From TrEMBL:
<keyword id="KW-0804">Transcription</keyword>
<feature type="domain" description="IclR-ED">
    <location>
        <begin position="62"/>
        <end position="245"/>
    </location>
</feature>
<dbReference type="GO" id="GO:0045892">
    <property type="term" value="P:negative regulation of DNA-templated transcription"/>
</dbReference>
<dbReference type="GO" id="GO:0003677">
    <property type="term" value="F:DNA binding"/>
</dbReference>
<comment type="function">
    <text>May be an activator protein for the gylABX operon.</text>
</comment>
<dbReference type="InterPro" id="IPR036390">
    <property type="entry name" value="WH_DNA-bd_sf"/>
</dbReference>
<dbReference type="InterPro" id="IPR005471">
    <property type="entry name" value="Tscrpt_reg_IclR_N"/>
</dbReference>
<dbReference type="Pfam" id="PF09339">
    <property type="entry name" value="HTH_IclR"/>
</dbReference>
<dbReference type="Pfam" id="PF01614">
    <property type="entry name" value="IclR_C"/>
</dbReference>
<dbReference type="InterPro" id="IPR050707">
    <property type="entry name" value="HTH_MetabolicPath_Reg"/>
</dbReference>
<dbReference type="InterPro" id="IPR029016">
    <property type="entry name" value="GAF-like_dom_sf"/>
</dbReference>
<dbReference type="InterPro" id="IPR014757">
    <property type="entry name" value="Tscrpt_reg_IclR_C"/>
</dbReference>
<dbReference type="GO" id="GO:0006071">
    <property type="term" value="P:glycerol metabolic process"/>
</dbReference>
<dbReference type="GO" id="GO:0003700">
    <property type="term" value="F:DNA-binding transcription factor activity"/>
</dbReference>
<keyword id="KW-0805">Transcription regulation</keyword>
<keyword id="KW-0238">DNA-binding</keyword>
<protein>
    <recommendedName>
        <fullName>Glycerol operon regulatory protein</fullName>
    </recommendedName>
</protein>
Length: 252
């Protein structure tokens, strides 16, 4: 039975490459045509493959509907939380998870620092969109025309001397983030707080959330915080893999 299931499932990635006829399916599986036909008929009955008028098979609409339904029911916060807690236990600093919704970047999870100095961020509250590291990551993933339109509409409050001053500077920062794959806020919102953030990606490679580690200068310097980047990225890769159902290698 397990071999039959394995063979049936092996048909799906083949058809993802494009329509294939019975002979091609049989050759790929290394089975007789009668066996391949039996598997295809079963998949067809469940709507997972479709037989075209030219007698070739392609992926069925039911498969896409199931995938869409599964994606809609995924909760990135639920998946990420245990990983955020482990990261916090390893580094001791404040860990955030944020998403982009309706032109705002919102914190949806937070694990507090073990140190006495605490951050004022709150779950459900918008972040300082022009300076926050998580915001830069989420906005950098938008199509270029959307990035430019958004940059022109934003206000640019100078929270500190390191805050992003204008749309041109903001767009340059987003270009840098897109190229390097991570973002920082080094005293841009609060002089004494530094932050490094990395993306969490879905199966299509799009950024679905951003996570960050933040700490005050009195605990670690900005350079010391940046040494945690590999650890933070491994955490994000683990969350991305669990969220998307793909291995870290497939996410590259």
């Amino acid at each position: 039975m397990s071999q039959t299931v394995d063979r049936a499932l092996s048909i799906l990635p083949l058809l993802a490459e494009g329509p294939a006829d019975l002979g091609q399916v049989a050759d790929r599986l290394g089975v007789h045509k009668s066996t391949a036909l039996r598997l295809l008929r079963t998949l067809h009955e469940h709507g997972l493959v479709y037989r075209q008028s030219d007698q070739r098979y392609r992926l069925g609409a039911r498969l896409f509907a199931l995938a869409q339904e599964a994606m809609e029911n995924l909760d990135v916060r639920e998946i990420a939380h245990a990983h955020l807690v482990r990261l916090n236990e390893e580094c001791g600093h404040t860990v955030h998870l944020a998403v982009y919704e309706e032109n705002e970047v919102l914190y949806i999870d937070k694990v507090e620092s073990r140190y006495p100095v605490r951050m004022y961020s709150r779950i459900g509250k918008p972040v300082a969109i022009t300076v926050a590291a998580v915001a830069k990551l989420l906005l950098a993933d938008l199509p270029e025309h959307e990035r430019r339109a958004l940059a022109e509409k934003l206000d640019y409050p100078m929270y500190t001397s390191r805050s992003t001053p204008n749309p041109a500077a903001f767009l340059r920062e987003l270009d840098t983030v897109r190229e390097q794959g991570w973002a920082t806020d080094l005293g841009g919102h609060e002089e004494s707080i530094n932050c490094v953030a990395v993306p969490i990606r879905g199966a299509d490679g799009k950024v679905v959330a951003a996570m960050s580690v933040s700490a005050p200068n009195v605990v670690v310097t900005a350079d010391e915080l940046l040494t945690l980047l590999p650890l933070v990225r491994r955490t994000a890769d683990a969350i991305s893999g669990e969220y998307s159902g793909r291995t870290p290698a497939e996410l590259q």
